[in-house]
Write a structure and sequence with these properties.
353 residues, alpha/beta, Rossmann fold, 5-stranded parallel beta sheet, 17 helices
């Protein structure tokens, strides 16, 4: 197949849809940028909090993803047996051969630390008559970054099964509705991966959820280890010793601690995509007035807020809760000291960001 590089079609103007030619053009552009010998990170995008910086392994994998996508688009049938998904081969072939067939990448993505309200927000927006939410968490550029490309791509194909409310799916509605997905762990994404994300989701907006990092960490611990009766003992360590730093639980805890450094994450996302594409929502505001938050989110992603929307009238009823257990005092002291500067920085964020 001869690769064409024309980026836009007039009939797709204003839509976050890509036909084959548009997707190929954006992939080639991303490949050119990511393949530069020195991909420069803006100073505001630098930082730690467990986020990967640009390195050769990350760069090599991104280039491999782009090449695989280009190959799949060129020869969709060759990948059907490899993935065990022959039912998708016809769709991929239509996409590669027919300029009228579009693949509707997400118009908005919910990101942010775990236990910040993303499950509730995803469920709530899924009730909006103008929105289709992708099923589950695609996590193309995070948890499944090293997985085969085709199963990731298949999550975005226009079939009923890919959406949380399949009964509302139709080809006409699919083309013109607003598509959303939830990937909380994207908020710790490296700046280099954001380059690829921007080329795959060229007009997407982002809703970044934050929460008081002390309360978020304790909620995450309770949720992750809700059946672990020895959680407090593990955190203290046997006989006063620190927990095993090489253990699986402790590695998870270290990663989760990094998720609470929201201000570094916000700087990266605003630097990469611009403030107009980022809406920061505080979990505390969601708890206080969920209907008002939903109205702000709808305005940000460009959908109406129906006055008779039942989920808005009953905002806050559906909650992703863990068993109420008091935080041990030693842990609260440790987390409050660790997150002292972060909590001050979060409170100083402008309310309109």
């Amino acid at each position: 197949m001869k690769i064409k590089t024309r980026i836009h079609n007039d009939d797709l103007s204003g839509l976050n849809c890509l036909n084959c030619e548009a997707l190929v053009g954006r992939l080639l552009s991303a490949r050119r940028i990511i393949g530069l010998s020195a991909l420069q990170l803006p100073s505001a995008a630098a930082g730690s909090c467990g986020m990967q910086e640009v390195d050769s392994i990350d760069r090599t994998r991104m280039l491999a993803i782009i090449d695989d996508l280009l190959e799949i688009i060129s020869k969709p049938d060759a990948f059907s047996e490899q993935s065990g998904s022959r039912k998708y081969a016809g769709l991929l072939r239509q996409f590669s051969e027919n300029p009228e067939i579009v693949m509707h990448f997400s118009d908005f993505i919910i990101i942010g630390g775990a236990r910040c309200g993303s499950s509730w927000l995803r469920w709530s927006l899924g009730q909006n008559p103008g929105v289709l939410m992708l099923r589950g968490e695609p996590r193309f550029l995070s948890a499944y970054f090293d997985a085969p490309v085709l199963p990731n791509l298949e999550k975005y194909l226009p079939i009923r099964f890919n959406f949380s409310h399949p009964e509302r799916f139709s080809q006409v509605f699919y083309k013109y509705c607003t598509i959303g997905e939830k990937n909380p762990d994207y908020h710790t994404m490296s700046y280099a991966r954001m380059v690829l994300l921007d080329h795959l989701f060229p007009q997407a907006k982002f809703v970044l959820l934050t929460r008081d990092p002390v309360e978020r960490m304790w909620s995450h611990l309770k949720h992750q280890f809700r059946e672990d009766a020895g959680l407090e003992g593990f955190l203290r360590g046997d006989e006063g010793r620190a927990p095993d730093a090489g253990g699986e639980k402790w590695r998870w805890i270290v990663r989760s601690l990094g998720e609470g450094l929201f201000t570094q994450s916000i700087r990266r996302w605003v630097t990469a995509f611009g403030a107009s594409r980022i809406l920061v929502i505080r979990h505390e505001d969601l708890s206080a007035d969920a209907a008002a938050v939903l109205s702000r989110v709808c305005g940000h992603i460009g959908v109406s807020f129906p006055p008779d929307w039942s989920v808005a009238r009953n905002a806050g009823v559906r909650r992703n809760t863990s068993e109420e257990i008091a935080m041990p005092e030693f842990l609260r002291e440790y987390l409050e000291e660790m997150y002292h500067e972060e909590r001050l920085a979060l409170k100083a964020l402008p309310g309109t960001l």
